[in-house]
Amino acid sequence: MFTEAQLYSPVTQGADGDVMVHLSDEHPGVHDPEYRTRRNAIAALALDYRPGGPVPQIDYTEEEQGVWRIVSAELARKRERYASREVIEAAERLGLPGDHIPQLDEVTSKLFPRTGFRYAPAAGLVPLREFFGSFSERIFHSTQYIRHHSAPLYTPEPDAVHEILGHANQLASPRFAAIYETVGAAVNRLTTDRALKFLADVFWFSMEFGVVREHGEIRCYGAGLLSSFGEIEEFREATLRPLDIREMGTAVYDITHYQPILYCAESIAEIEDVVGGFFTTVDDEVVAELTGQPV
Ligand SMILES: [Fe+2]
Fold first, then answer.
1. Span from the CA of 24 to the centroid of ligand 1 (angstroms)
2. Residue 208: active-site member
3. Distance, CA 36 to ligand 1 centroid (Å)?
4. Does residue 3 register a pLDDT over 70?
5. Mean local confidence (pLDDT), 138-148
6. Beta bridge partners of residue 212, listed in sequence order
7. What pLDDT band is residue 5 in, cutting at 50, 70 and 90?
8. Which of 9, 148, 162, 228 is an active site residue?
9. Which of 36, 55, 146, 252 has the greatest count of CB atoms below 10 A from its CB?
10. pLDDT of 198-208, one tens digit each?
11. According to the model, what pLDDT value does residue 230 have?
12. Could you confirm whether 167 is annotated as catalytic?
């Protein structure tokens, strides 16, 4: 998922237990009653989930499977052309299906033997501390709904395509999975919301929107880019800056548009050193020092 709350459709549960997903007026599925009923039902299943219990199985419709087939094929082609070698090889080893939406259990069965990560259901936004914190146990919270069939290559909110084709393909790399785990441990050391936001922003500009130079070409490794049909082509137009934790943690950005500024590493090893190194050592004092503001 993305950790930016405004990207998610709010999910509420009434006193009668009815679960409702509130789609924005611009959402392609907002005027489709069947889609809305479906979204409510999928969110309700995630809300009923208890850790350790069975992961909800979604009986995806043929229409939904069709959306997956289209976007999965398109992103596979683009991944080959624009993604970092580290991700391409991880995705090949993971072997996610292109002909159907994998259940979260299926994702786990492929991912766990590679890097020990398991997928757990999320109805929508998971609180930052819980979302990042669960990385320390190698758990990834994932939504299960899929975008509306009228626009298979577009979604205003993170859906199964983002969670699985973006994050799982990235998490299949032991090097990236190790960085996620350090994020989980870091969150448990941070006590202030400001420090947590700083960490979330560094995560945004690395594991969601990070790019890396490979053989003179800019390639992406961030899950947000890997799962965006449009942005995966456009990121080469962005202004590139070298990795700089202070800048990444304090940059002001608009999450609803393509990112105009991206942070480019010179190698995966540099991501591990600079970004991974930050996650490994960060605490409230480190953030206070970087931002020049007291804890
Ligand atoms: Fe995400």
1. 19
2. yes
3. 23
4. no
5. 97
6. 219, 265
7. low
8. 162
9. 146
10. 999 999 999 99
11. 84
12. yes
162 C-alpha vs ligand 1 centroid, how far in Å? 7
Q: Which residues on neighbouring strands pair with residue 242, listed in sequence order?
A: 264
DSSP string, 228-282: -TTHHHHGGGSEEEE--HHHHHH----TTS--SEEEEESSHHHIIIIIIHHHHH-
Q: Would you state the pLDDT for residue 274?
A: 98
Q: State the distance between the two ends of the chain, measured CA to CA, in whole angstroms.
A: 28
The pTM score is 0.94
Determine the distance separating the centroid of ligand 1 and the alpha carbon of 161, expressed in angstroms.
10
Q: Which of 64, 163, 181, 208 is catalytic?
A: 208
Instruction: Enter the tokens of residue 154.
Output: 């577009």
The tokens of 274 are what? 């600079």
**Identity at 201, one-letter amino acid code:** D
At 101, the pLDDT band (50, 70, 90 cuts) reads very high
Is residue 191 within 8 A of residue 181, CB to CB? The reply is: no
From the list 167, 206, 228, 231, the catalytic residue is: 167
Residue 256 CB neighbour total at 10 angstroms? 9
Active site residue 285: no
Ligand 1 centre distance from Cα of residue 15 (Å): 31
Q: Is the pLDDT of residue 2 over 70?
A: no
Q: Is 62 a catalytic residue?
A: no
CA 26 to chain centre: 22
Cβ atoms 121, 45 nearer than 8 A = yes
Which residues, in sequence order, are bridge partners of residue 118? 139
26 alpha carbon – ligand 1 mean position (Å)? 21
CA 16 / ligand 1 centre spacing (Å): 32
Q: What is the largest CA-CA distance in the chain?
A: 58
